[in-house]
Write a structure and sequence with these properties.
The protein is an alpha/beta fold. It contains 19 helices and eleven strands. Helices cover about 45% and strands about 15% of the residues.
Length: about 375
């Protein structure tokens, strides 16, 4: 026979649909709980104990909660007995007091009512996500303040913490997930749907990644940077940089970037710290399409995979010092990091052959282990 605890569990499962009906303004209907219709007790005292337990927590005894309807039913072992054949909540008050959710629902109704008055477009979202409203109940008023601001200013072009919204400075950062869902609906025509980062998606300023580069031409460093040759600027500024550059060398590791400074100076050339897979930050540099691009990475599977990624952005890119001759001459039998990538890479036949050897044996030659003299004699950017 079903117990009061089991009735509560089943009632809890109906809570979300109840909340959804509230948002949809549907009246409460008698809510039936399906009970266990098999009665297997062979001892009358045990049977009587179960019956009394379920009655003790019913509306008849405590003034709210589930109601019971009884019928005289023939049991297998105890003959005819008066048993509860229907368990139901007759009113909304009975249901909520039984679950201990009355105050929670009052706040939920207040929040959803104000939300629908302010943003009718959110009705479908509210119906689908009542538990998110409950989970964010304490902050719901502030969440709507943020939504109201963006509705009126869909392209703020400000940093998150300088938005003129009367909420805590870190509030939006802490509540980005639910705010994002709401703004996707409310200002859908203004968002950048392809962007995942909140700031980019909703037209905000943000702390951009920095592109660090070395100017290898003294004339350029003196004319444009007061003699400075080790520079870092935001991606957006790097994308529009206008310098008389003909060649770019992208290196994978920071140590190698330092080494570049000791190389003979190269005219019209800069070297960029690619920082491994962060090379994605360079993908929108359109002026790369009209200059010579060279990539120098570790001779391991990741180095060639990053080269392939870079060449996916700029097909004319060439690799330097990532050949079998360099590998055979300087390899010290270091282990690499295994890869799970199986897709076809943007590599030349020679690069692919070396990549296969590295992958099969899990080998690695880090670029900083190549002696400077060898680099100086073999780094060819022509």
């Amino acid at each position: 026979m079903i117990t009061p605890q089991e009735i509560k569990k089943k009632a809890e499962r109906k809570y979300v649909s109840f909340l959804q009906q509230l948002v949809d303004n549907k009246p409460f209907e008698k809510l039936v709980i399906r009970g266990d219709k098999s009665y297997t007790k062979t001892s009358f005292p045990e049977f009587e104990k179960e019956i009394q337990l379920i009655i003790s927590q019913s509306k008849e005894k405590i003034g709210f909660g589930y109601s019971l309807e009884f019928q005289n039913v023939k049991t297998k072992s105890l003959g005819f007995q008066t048993l509860p054949t229907s368990i139901f909540f007759e009113t909304e008050n009975d249901f909520l007091k039984f679950l201990g959710r009355k105050n929670e629902v009052e706040l939920f109704c207040k929040s959803t009512k104000f939300t629908l008055e302010t943003f009718p477009d959110l009705k479908v979202w509210l119906i689908k996500n009542p538990k998110k409203v409950i989970a964010n109940q304490a902050d719901w008023e502030s969440i709507l303040k943020v939504c109201q601001y963006f509705k009126q200013n869909p392209k703020p072009n400000l940093y998150i913490r300088e938005l003129p919204i009367k909420v805590h400075t870190k509030f939006l950062e802490r509540n980005q997930a639910v705010i994002r869902e709401l703004l996707d609906i409310l200002i859908s025509e203004h968002i950048k749907t392809e962007e995942k980062l909140f700031e980019k998606r909703f037209n905000l300023k943000f702390a951009e990644p920095q592109i660090r580069f070395k100017v290898l031409d003294k004339k350029i460093s003196h004319k444009f940077f007061s003699g400075l040759d080790d520079i870092a600027i935001p991606v957006s500024q790097f994308e529009i940089m206008d310098l008389p550059i003909r060649k770019v060398l992208v290196v994978e590791n920071k140590t190698t970037l330092y080494t570049i400074l000791t190389l003979p100076k190269m005219s019209d050339t800069i070297a960029i710290f690619g920082s491994g897979y962060s090379i994605i930050n360079l993908k929108n540099v359109e002026w790369f399409n009209v200059i010579d691009l060279h990539y120098w990475g570790d001779i391991d599977v990741q180095g060639f995979e990053i080269l392939s990624q870079f060449r996916g952005y700029f097909p004319h890119s060439k690799s330097v010092l990532m050949d079998k001759q360099t590998f055979d001459k300087h390899f010290e039998y270091d282990n690499g990091t295994p890869t799970n990538i199986s897709a076809k890479l943007n590599l030349t036949s020679d690069e692919q052959e070396l990549y296969n050897i590295l992958k099969e044996n899990n080998w690695r030659l880090e670029q900083e282990k190549i002696p400077f003299e060898y680099v100086n004699n073999n780094l060819d950017l022509d």
